[in-house]
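User: Second chain of the day. Same drill as before.
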Amino acid sequence: MILYFSATGNSRYVAERIAVSLSDRAVSIEQHDGNISLADGEVLGFVTPTNWFEVAVLVKSFMQSMTISGKPSYSFIVATYGTTPGYVFSDARSLLKRKGIALDAGFSVKMPDNWTPMFDLSDSNKVAETNRKAETYIDNVIRLINARTHGNCMEKKQPYFLRVFTRPLLHWEQQTRFFHVEDSCIGCGLCARKCPVGAIEMHDKRPVWTKKRCTICLGCLHRCPKFAIQYGKKTKQHGQYQHPSITKKTDH
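Assistant: Same format as last time:
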């Protein structure tokens, strides 16, 4: 079983590619009840975005609350990232150890980073080139998984102690007060329906963030049909993004 979370399609695409190579299935954690029952010899994999050097907020929460019966024959995690996968492997290894799972391997795939408060994705040619290069990363990860490679094979990884500095930054950016809605909003409610933690409600046909913090997946911003949702001052000029293979499918 390959479990993933994906707001804009990167991790979903990687998970589906890996699942096909293993004749397995890729399942969104948003559609999973957290009760994992592994058959004899089954592989267990996770594909996660990187949030400030660590396992994505929603994936971390899933790992902390899930229950697992059975032992995987091989377990791995893949981090999709824009700059660095940070200490995702160490983070996941610690989380899974508490569930009785010894994480065998970690891999990474560089893709367009959807954190547009910082990264500029307005150049479609550059984005397409990054996705083109990502195919080589994915092919290599699949090869290593099929070879049952062990160890932290992530590129540009960072030491776990950095969480002392990066965790406060993550908590700061999770504040929903940084979101705002422009007049181009048509009140379709897509953002509220798709928010993975129910942080958005529609009031008078306008999205309102009713929780102080969210998972900062930015799915609301990138899916908005009118690009009316912004976070901070830079996202408007940095553009929207969804992985090209996912935009034709139903997002989850």
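Residues 34 and 62 are 7 Å apart (CA to CA).

User: Great, on to the next one.
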